[in-house]
Design goal:
Blueprint lengths: L33 E7 L2 E8 L16 H18 L8 E11 L11 E12 L3 E10 L2 E13 L1 H8 L41 E3 L19 H15 L3 E10 L10 E7 L8 E9 L2 E12 L1
Length: 303
């Protein structure tokens, strides 16, 4: 059963357009990757298109899609399914609690046309309020991601009570610490995309750099630091701790919001790798105001 009208072209060929941006909580049409949602046998299938020319969503050489693009697409898919399938109100907020994803080594090559991705979601729990979604993501027929996420949906009034009077619009840029890290060392193209102030190896940590004018991370007004920015920062820490490696897995646990306009410290450490495996796990603990805000583990393997 198709549930997004003409925007759904999962079974009938490539999509002709993205779904409305309000369904994935984006402001820029260019940052909407989901093209359709349909219910199949009790599960949800989501179509997406990945751009070939947006350097932010490609690896440094421009030849492969960045796995973080798949993470963002998964985020959008969960939100779209909530609005379209479960009739979650547009004003309600989706809060990611935890996620665990494994990325394949192959299947990420940028082709002659935009990448056609399909996400298969198997959801459990109260899909309208607190639920878990298991996912398999394929791109051009090749499976590239499998994993899960746990999400809480808060009604607008509940979210307002939780967050108080924090403004959702930053009226002036928040001064960022200067970074000693070149963009190419963390898989990025521009200095604006570097999210850490220094290499964490000498001291075991670094400070988070937050630019509320960033066109992707702050595509729309926020009253906190977005989770995707924290995941991106953790991946950057992992690449600094383990140069010449590539992300192959991700485990995320969000415990509190990271607030805007306050310093957030990242404590980095190496976690013992499973016996007999070449992979290394880098753990980033995000601490702010004397409290733990998030713990993100990034598994990396040699390129």
């Amino acid at each position: 059963m198709s549930v997004v009208g003409d925007a759904v072209r999962l079974a009938g060929g490539p999509a002709q357009q993205a779904i409305p941006r309000r369904l994935v909580h984006r402001s820029s049409i260019a940052e909407v990757f989901v093209t359709g949602v349909e219910v199949v046998g009790g599960n949800v299938r989501v179509g997406a298109q990945w751009p070939r020319a947006n350097r932010f969503h490609l690896e440094a050489d421009g030849l492969r899609y960045d796995p973080l693009l798949a993470v963002e697409t998964f985020r959008q898919a969960v939100i779209a399914a909530g609005h379209v399938v479960d009739a979650v109100c547009a004003e309600d907020r989706f809060v990611m609690v935890r996620t665990r994803l494994a990325f394949s080594a192959t299947g990420w090559t940028v082709g002659a046309e935009p990448g056609c991705a399909v996400l298969e979601l198997a959801r459990s729990g109260d899909s309208g309020r607190r639920s878990t979604a298991e996912v398999r993501i394929s791109c051009e027929g090749a499976e590239v991601v499998m994993g899960m996420a746990e999400v809480v949906v808060l009604e607008a009034a509940d979210y307002a009570r939780l967050r108080g009077s924090r403004p959702r619009v930053i009226t002036a840029p928040v001064p960022m610490p200067a970074s000693q890290v070149a963009a190419e060392r963390v898989g990025r193209h521009f200095d604006q995309d570097v999210l850490v102030d220094q290499d964490p190896r000498p001291s075991g940590g670094c400070a988070l750099r937050v630019d509320p004018t960033h066109p992707v991370h702050f595509d729309h007004p926020q009253d906190h630091v977005p989770g995707m920015l924290l995941i991106d920062a953790a991946r950057q820490v992992a690449l600094l701790m383990q140069p010449q490696h590539r992300m192959s897995g991700l485990e995320v646990q969000f415990t509190r919001f990271v607030e805007l306009g306050q310093t957030c410290h990242i404590v980095a450490s190496l976690v013992t790798s499973p016996a007999g495996r070449a992979a290394t796990v880098v753990q980033s603990d995000f601490n702010q105001g004397g409290q733990s805000r998030a713990r993100i583990r990034v598994r990396v393997e040699p390129c």
